[in-house]
Amino acid sequence: MNKELLERYIVGETNEVENNLVQRWLEEDPDNRAEYLKVKNVFLSYLYAMNKELLERHMVGETNEAERMIVEEWLEKDANNREAYLQMKKLWDSLPKPLEVPEVDVDKAWMDFKIVRDRRALESTETPKRKTKVIQWNWWAAASILLVCMVGFYVFDRSQRKEMHLASQEAVRQDALPDGSIVTLNKNTELAYSSTWSNKNRNVELKKGEVFFRVQKDKKHPFVIATGNTHITVLGTSFNVRRIPNATEVIVATGLVKVAYADKEIFLRPDQMLTIRDTDTMKVEKKPVQDKFYKYYVDREFNFENTPLKRVTEVLSQAYDYKVMIDDPALEKIPYTAEFKQNSLAEILKVMAKSLDLKVEVRDKEIHLTR
């Protein structure tokens, strides 16, 4: 296989015909895939050794889909790569950013000003004419100064409260917040925080999706996550927050987490979880965590230990863009034990089919397991 074609395939620059050619070649022989992975590793190492500009564009969200996938694969390949990236991003974030002046509705401000001015002028008609001129002139001067001050304060206040956004689309994203806390965003997630965190609290908002937090310890400055009608407060710990329709799910991995809603407060310890609906006002019971699979998107590891096959398919359906289904209900309770690390869904299903004597059938975005 042509090396130049493989390199263009890696960065997403091949056309449909070339894509099909490479994919057929990969499927023909396991040795072909091994050769491809070798070329890919060498190419990515060379690419990132020479291309600092691509990393910088990834930090500010200006990469295309193929470039973003390349960066994320490089980050997952080695812990040293991720550490170098986070250090580089921390330096990047510390650089002074240009002040963005928000748009001010000058027309509305001027109309409000004229209404107040005309009302004031009407009220002042009962006073002597000579005195009215003096009063109107003084009021005009004061009102003009006040209008300028209001617009200036609005611009300054908005610039100080500028929101920074971290978002993921069709891939998991890991990033660092200004305090050094690490966040892993599951697919289709949006997280926001102020560009200038206050001295009192480190506040973020989970607008949608799911995030695993590893919070940098700081006893003086609590870390607060707002989502829905719930506020989650920690000092330094790791936990998972998932926003589901009209509710919030919190699972604690390490440390202590305070969950506040309505006028209630509940404290969660490791391996405890809580689901709060936005309309809840009564106390909600915390529960033990069923298993560790809630972190599937963080480390892409699955450690099944006598796990019922039904639960296995549920986890795989969450982790990949396919719905894995069991056609025969008798198979749902079969215990399954296996460990997978950084494997594709096809690789996992191949091992499962062999070990459990299953047949795998793919129908569009559904995968059916039968015997």
Automatic annotation (TrEMBL):
<dbReference type="Pfam" id="PF16344">
    <property type="entry name" value="FecR_C"/>
</dbReference>
<keyword id="KW-0812">Transmembrane</keyword>
<keyword id="KW-1133">Transmembrane helix</keyword>
<dbReference type="Pfam" id="PF04773">
    <property type="entry name" value="FecR"/>
</dbReference>
<dbReference type="InterPro" id="IPR006860">
    <property type="entry name" value="FecR"/>
</dbReference>
<dbReference type="InterPro" id="IPR012373">
    <property type="entry name" value="Ferrdict_sens_TM"/>
</dbReference>
<dbReference type="GO" id="GO:0016989">
    <property type="term" value="F:sigma factor antagonist activity"/>
</dbReference>
<keyword id="KW-0472">Membrane</keyword>
<protein>
    <recommendedName>
        <fullName>Iron dicitrate transport regulator FecR</fullName>
    </recommendedName>
</protein>
<feature type="transmembrane region" description="Helical">
    <location>
        <begin position="137"/>
        <end position="156"/>
    </location>
</feature>
<feature type="domain" description="FecR protein">
    <location>
        <begin position="172"/>
        <end position="258"/>
    </location>
</feature>
<feature type="domain" description="Protein FecR C-terminal">
    <location>
        <begin position="301"/>
        <end position="368"/>
    </location>
</feature>
<dbReference type="InterPro" id="IPR032508">
    <property type="entry name" value="FecR_C"/>
</dbReference>
